[in-house]
Amino acid sequence: MRLFLLILILSFASSRATQIEILNNCTYTVWAAANPGGGKQLKQGETWTLNDVTGSGRIWGRTKCTFGSDGRGKCASGDCNGRLDCQVNGRAPNNLAEYSINQTNNADVFYVSVVEGFNIPMEFGAAASSSSSSNCSNSVSRCATDVKGACPMELRDPEGCNNPCTVFGNSQFCCTSGNICEPTSYSKFFKDLCQDAFTFPYDFDQRNSCPTGTDYKVVFCPASASMIIVYWGQNGDEGSLAQTCATGNYGIVNIAFLATFGNGQTPLINLAGHCDPTTNGCTGLSSDIKACQSKGIKVMLSIGGGAGSYNLSSAEDARVIADYLWNNFLGGQSDSRPLGDAVLDGIDFDIVGGTTMYWDELAKALIGYSQQRKVYLTAAPQCPFPDAWLGSALNTGLFDYVSVQFYNNAPCQYSDNADNLKSYWSQWILIPAGQIFLGLPASPEASGGGYVPPDVLSSKVLPFIKRFSKYGGVMLWSKYYDNGYSSAIKRNV
Ligand SMILES: *[C@@H]1O[C@H](CO)[C@@H](O)[C@H](O)[C@H]1NC(C)=O
Ligand SMILES: *[C@@H]1O[C@H](CO)[C@@H](O)[C@H](O)[C@H]1NC(C)=O
Ligand SMILES: *[C@@H]1O[C@H](CO)[C@@H](O)[C@H](O)[C@H]1NC(C)=O
Ligand SMILES: *[C@@H]1O[C@H](CO)[C@@H](O)[C@H](O)[C@H]1NC(C)=O
């Protein structure tokens, strides 16, 4: 009987209890705190796991603490009544990982909140090992940018960026009137930097949710997920696709271009001097594509380009092209696949010709195939906002990565200063897409304007654009012109 009970308890614990692992990935020591849960000093790389988490609670980080052997002392931020082992919430400014386990429909709700200000970059998400993480409505919330550096003067704090309620104490910021509160100029400041964080007391759209039973991970100072995207294919002297991926500089390579399609034309790729598609000579690229993918690099087919012949004549035409792309380059089947049997990761829209219509229909039709196998959608609009060709396609919200071409476009490209670039970037970063990339020429010869020298990019441009949480990295045109540029900027992207 006792053995039976023990087995029952063990199986209950292993299948139901929620775990939250807390990792300090900062180069400095963080005193992690949880209410309920207590507290623990974490040096760089150390973790602390909360077991059997139920109900609602919060996790945060404290900085510059000193504690005696009795566990009493103080911290410069996040202090909880001077105790290592927190029994109460921390003192602002501090950002929070907040959760409520097993709410409506057996789901957990969780998010990073900056309602009480910011002190340490943080990410809160489903643990990668959690089997149910694929069923989350949104599996990660982060505020991982340099909020402290960008903090408005009146909110500054030696250890972070304060919340306006603590500083001004009025009912608009503290939301004490009893009415529903609206965003304020300060909550909008936080939202610009941390678009998937909870930024004011009624920011309920921001909720992330996973099935109860999911385990979670809180990371202080998470990796920035940024990368460099490069175009390859328009010059036979730029090295092979496999060599391009072997540089280790790129996260995505766009094969450029499928230059002829739509309006009844027979689709045709153009890869300049690399291979001749008219004699089926490009199928050998399959092994290069697979070599890239084995390194974790995504390989996309870019459609369009500056010199192509393409034009969607109707919504039906868009669906026909989507079907062609699926069967010939993605997860479908065809006996005439131009790049052989390798399955590309998705389709990149580089559209500067034909009509401005039906590109949204093409995006919708392609995403339809994602049920069978994930199809990434990326795009490279011109920097004037909104883009004439791709504006409505981008408004579908279906694009994972959008690389805005800040070159060949005088009104918005860099020229002596980055004022115009920054002002257009601030518009682009708000579009409904996964991540936004800064598209640049890889050398002065690569375009008719817009080149940003690597040192200027790293010191004057990236510090500004990286503050936005949807910043994804830099896109370069193209591999042929990239003779050292990606290597020079890689560390700062
Ligand atoms: C969640 O709560 C419901 C009751 O509201 C309970 O029946 C269920 O067992 C709980 N689920 C977990 C995983 O604890
Ligand atoms: C996730 O969703 C799939 C399909 O909707 C379902 O079969 C599976 O049981 C779910 N997994 C969890 C852990 O909820
Ligand atoms: C920790 O930070 C380093 C450096 O930024 C990064 O490479 C690594 O992926 C991070 N780890 C996690 C779990 O975020
Ligand atoms: C695109 O195709 C439509 C329909 O055939 C045609 O009317 C239009 O002139 C074409 N536009 C371009 C720019 O080729």
UniProtKB/TrEMBL annotation:
Keyword Manganese part of the UniProt annotation: no
Single GO molecular function: endochitinase activity
EC number(s) per entry: 3.2.1.14
Gene Ontology biological process terms in this record: chitin catabolic process; polysaccharide catabolic process
Keyword set includes Transcription regulation: no
Keyword line: Carbohydrate metabolism, Chitin degradation, Disulfide bond, Glycosidase, Hydrolase, Polysaccharide degradation, Secreted, Signal
Reaction catalysed by this enzyme: Random endo-hydrolysis of N-acetyl-beta-D-glucosaminide (1->4)-beta-linkages in chitin and chitodextrins
InterPro entries: Cts1-like, GH, Glyco_hydro18_cat, Glycosyl_Hydrlase18_Chitinase, Osmotin/thaumatin-like_sf, Thaumatin
GO CC entries: extracellular region
Localization (cell): Secreted
Span of the signal peptide: 1-17
Major localization listed first in the record, in broad terms: secreted
Enzyme class (EC, first level): hydrolase
Domain GH18: 226-493
Sequence similarity: Belongs to the thaumatin family. Belongs to the glycosyl hydrolase 18 family. Chitinase class II subfamily.
Name of the molecule in the record: chitinase
Protein source organism: Ficus carica (Common fig)
Upper taxonomic lineage: Eukaryota, Viridiplantae, Streptophyta, Embryophyta, Tracheophyta
